[in-house]
């Protein structure tokens, strides 16, 4: 795994990050610091801006204002492949796999340069194939290597997506709703994997609505409401914060 030259306390930070869609201010001057080497969660009510925040940070959309720093480097507005190269990997809320490619091919896609997808079946680097198989075993779906991705369960597709993310050997992994739509047994498997990968030194930033999972898994929780953080701290601290209750319950 890529080890950073130094270990800052803060992995990923934003200052005044802002993004509007027409009249909707999805991210509203958000200044956030995620902790290096920890399992961080980003939670908040529906529409509070979590996915937009992920998209701004990973270069999928350009923020209107503000900055994103990763390990003390300004990465604001860099395209997704440059963000990925800096050590950040991500998964998507609606799992992104290629339905007609096999499970193994889906993992190999993660290391193919753009435009080579059509040649995927013809040219395979044995080292990549070996690594892809290792990662499939790691996430527990190596027995499905030859199945088409559309034929495996949604939870297995989430594990497949995670294997693809790991192909890039990211130091920081951003997961957008890893447990959404996944059966409880696979949620436990995903949680165990996150713990294992974190114990190996990888930082996590996880958007998730499953509060039991978030509170059981995270070291540090950031709570968003209306595009900005309203609370942060340990799960215990955040759960007792009246602002958080107000945001969720509207009390
Ligand atoms: N491409 C877009 N065009 C217009 N409005 C958008 C777009 N993406 C997000 N929004 C709006 O921005 C706000 C924040 O949305 P976002 O999806 O980031 O929230 P979220 O916290 O991830 O929500 P959820 O928990 O429901 O996934 C919402 O009001 C949403 O409707």
UniProtKB/TrEMBL annotation:
Q: Which CDD domains match?
A: ABC_Mj1267_LivG_branched (cd03219)
Gene3D superfamilies, alphabetized: P-loop containing nucleotide triphosphate hydrolases
* Keywords annotated in UniProt: ATP-binding, Nucleotide-binding, Transport
Q: Which InterPro entries match?
A: AAA+_ATPase, ABC_AA/LPS_Transport, ABC_transporter-like_ATP-bd, ABC_transporter-like_CS, BCA_ABC_TP_C, P-loop_NTPase
Domain ABC transporter as annotated: residue spans: 12-251
Q: Does the keyword Nucleotide-binding apply?
A: yes
Name-wise, this protein is ABC-type branched-subunit amino acid transport system ATPase component
């Amino acid at each position: 795994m890529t080890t950073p030259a130094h270990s800052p306390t803060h992995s990923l930070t934003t200052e005044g990050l802002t993004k509007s869609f027409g009249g909707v201010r999805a991210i509203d001057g958000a200044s956030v610091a995620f902790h290096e080497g920890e399992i961080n969660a980003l939670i908040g009510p529906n529409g509070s801006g979590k996915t937009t925040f992920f998209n701004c940070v990973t270069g999928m959309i350009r923020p209107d204002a503000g900055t994103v720093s990763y390990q003390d480097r300004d990465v604001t507005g860099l395209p997704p492949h440059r963000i990925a190269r800096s050590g950040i990997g991500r998964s998507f809320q609606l799992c992104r796999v290629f339905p007609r490619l096999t499970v193994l091919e889906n993992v190999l896609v993660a290391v193919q340069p753009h435009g080579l997808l059509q040649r995927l079946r013809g040219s395979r680097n044995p080292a990549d194939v070996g690594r892809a198989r290792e990662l499939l075993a790691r996430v527990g779906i190596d027995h499905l290597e030859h199945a088409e991705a559309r034929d495996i369960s949604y939870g297995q597709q989430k594990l497949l997506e995670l294997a693809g993310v790991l192909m890039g050997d990211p130091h920081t992994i951003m997961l957008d709703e890893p447990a959404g739509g996944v059966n409880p047994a696979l949620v436990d498997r995903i949680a165990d994997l996150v713990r294992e990968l974190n114990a190996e030194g990888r930082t996590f930033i996880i958007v998730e609505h499953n509060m039991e999972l978030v509170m059981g898994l995270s070291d540090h929780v950031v709570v968003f409401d209306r595009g900005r953080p309203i609370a942060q701290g340990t799960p215990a601290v955040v759960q007792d914060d009246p602002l958080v209750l107000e945001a969720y319950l509207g009390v």
